[in-house]
Amino acid sequence: MASRDDPMFEITPQVLLKAYSCGIFPMAESADDPALYWIEPQQRGVLPLHEFHLPRRLLRTVRTTPWTVKVDSDYDRVIDGCAAPRIGRMSTWINTRIRALYRELFDLGACHTVEVWNGDELVGGLYGVALKSAFFGESMFSTERDASKIALVHLTARLIRGGFSLLDTQFVTEHLRQFGTIELDRAAFQAELEKALNHDANFFALPRNATGAEVAAIISSDR
After folding, report:
1. Rounded to whole angstroms, how far apart are CA atoms 31 and 93?
2. Closest Cα partner for 113 from 59, 69, 175?
3. 42-92+109-221 architecture in CATH?
4. Which of 41, 36, 52, 31 is CA-nearest to residue 4?
């Protein structure tokens, strides 16, 4: 289900967080369209944190990669990466209003990035919104093999350590399905969301400079 907003209506960070608490999130038709659409899918993608499937090859990569994983160090470059054209998708739903809104949430500490760096080059990452013990994944990107996967593994470990109970992926893709993402109908998702909003969590319970070995150990011990 989607409804179009008035592009002249000011959506504040508080309005946006209220929408998330109701299970609704915004998207734009394209980068050039000033309007936003409020989305409430009939089927919602959810990645059960304690059933996260970490393939053996990726586990080795997470442990041994020379790349550096950072948290909340460069919002603008992460958004640029998520909005960039890619194979099979030449347009983006991230418009100017989306960029500005989530920047405000980032400044308030409600939006977070997980970034994978090869030296000074950002090669992958993701961003999303944390609200109580729910994390709403918005978008991810990768310019090098496995970079976005590494970011997702680091995010999952961070959420587990921080006491989060819900990782919302919005939709299910083949990329996300390999990690155990499932679909919930709207009523089931709302029930999980309500439970998540009744508990606090800490995105920084895991230090910002957590290593791949530490992250892998958290997920492995959570089995």
Report:
1. 6
2. 69
3. 3-Layer(aba) Sandwich (3.40)
4. 36
Residue pLDDT tens, the chain, 223 long: 544 554 445 789 999 999 999 999 999 887 788 888 899 999 999 999 999 999 999 999 999 999 999 999 999 999 999 998 766 554 577 899 999 999 999 999 999 999 999 999 999 999 999 999 999 999 999 999 999 999 999 999 999 999 999 999 999 988 899 999 999 999 999 999 999 999 999 999 999 999 999 999 999 886 6
Q: Which of 143, 94, 137 is nearest to 116 (CA)?
A: 143
State the Cα–Cα distance between residues 179 and 49, nearest whole angstrom. 10
The pair of structure tokens assigned to 209 is 């400079």
Tokens 């961070």 label which residue? 158
Give residues with Cβ within 8 angstroms of 72, minimum separation 6: 106, 112, 113, 208
Q: What DSSP element (H or E) covers 82?
A: helix 75-83
SS3 130: strand
Closest CA to 144 of 118, 167, 119, 168: 118
Cα separation, 44 vs 41, whole angstroms: 6
Nearest Cα neighbor of 211 from 17, 85, 70 is 70
Q: Which residues pair with 70 in a beta bridge?
A: 115
Distances, alpha carbon 123 to alpha carbons 56, 118, 120, 142, 146, in Å = 22, 6, 9, 6, 9
